[in-house]
Amino acid sequence: MSAKLTLLLVALLLVLLPWALWRIAAVRAVAPLAVVQILAGIALGPSLLGRLAPELHAALFTPTALAAVNGLSAIGVLLFVFVSGMHLDIGALRRDGRGLPALALGSFALPLALGAGLGVWVAAAVPGALGPRGGLPVFVLGFAICIAVTALPVLAAILKELGLIGTRLGQTALAVAALNDAALWVVLAVLLALVAESGFGVGATLALTAGWAALMLGAVRPLLALMARGPGGEARMLTLGAATALAAAASAEAIGLDFILGGFVAGAIMPPGARAALIAKIEPVTVTVLLPFFFMASGLATAIDPASGAFLSVMLLATAATILGKVAGIALPARRAGESWAFALALGVMMQTKGLMEVVVLTVLHQAGLIGGTVFSALIAMAVICTVIPGALTRALARRAVQSLPAKSGASAAS
């Protein structure tokens, strides 16, 4: 069988099988499609197929096939984070609620702190926890970021499935997740600038990062807004949006940041009036056709070993840290703001959602050499667990927590 035929058959399996499984009501009730796709990617890797049929695994994933998978994976994840950036509506966040900053700060800062503390222990207790370029400070910060992640796009999908996206509970959760996303990418950008191998040095890389951000916000964003006006703006913005994502990714990679960061920023600066059309055109094909290649690439790097004490320890402790940090970090400020316990706890449960965003962040850290294979695999497993939790628990909490009020004006843009 030729390399092209092999790749096409594996791609067909990845596109069709997770969707078919997700169509089963019992599966759909507990897991979003992203989780099923992640598990399918893991199943093709050394964790399952590599153990059950090592000869078949080696025959499928030849160097030629891996090069193609990695190339398509890069395009898929770039477009995904580009769409994720368009879900982040800063204008809507300014309009909605004065209590949001306290909720967002708690839901990001507490798990970040717990993750940092756990990261110190993991670095000392787990052999090979640090990647080849992972000194202790950057490992601890990277590990902490992974504990603090909330995936806005997957959360929006879960809320839609539960019929909660238009409620005050759903809109508050989306707004807090959007602020979490913004904080996540700022901290990740600083971390990548500190460890960049661009040849510029740390100080110059930080200065280039600041200049790059100023250029994107001060020049590219208003230029895009101008180009979106007038007849044919929708068709024009499809090409310009994709080109902006590619240019931002290339420039971010060139100065030592990860190309994924560039894609997210490109999405965040898209004109609000053009976002709905861009998301409608780009997201379905990206999620259905291209992202499975990213899941495959991630699965090939994931080695889940249930018999490994190090793997189990990191997975269980990381899961406990993110659940405790997210629930307490948002529920306590919500209670102080006068919300009911049911409302506060439902928000905390929703903030567990890790989804694909966690896999993206983990891939960035792993490929940058900041975390080792065991930690990478354990945190992938944690991401799956923490993405399954919200759907099941929110159904129970929502009966008491949801207030049947219309969403505030403009709030729905964050979805």
From TrEMBL:
It is a multi-pass membrane protein. The chain crosses the membrane at residues 64-88, 100-124, 136-159, 171-196, 202-223, 285-304, 310-329, 341-365, 371-393. It is found in: Membrane. Residues 18-396 form the Cation/H+ exchanger transmembrane domain. It comes from the Bacteria. Keywords: Ion transport, Membrane, Transmembrane, Transmembrane helix, Transport. Its main location: membrane. This is Cation/H+ exchanger transmembrane domain-containing protein. It comes from Plastoroseomonas hellenica.
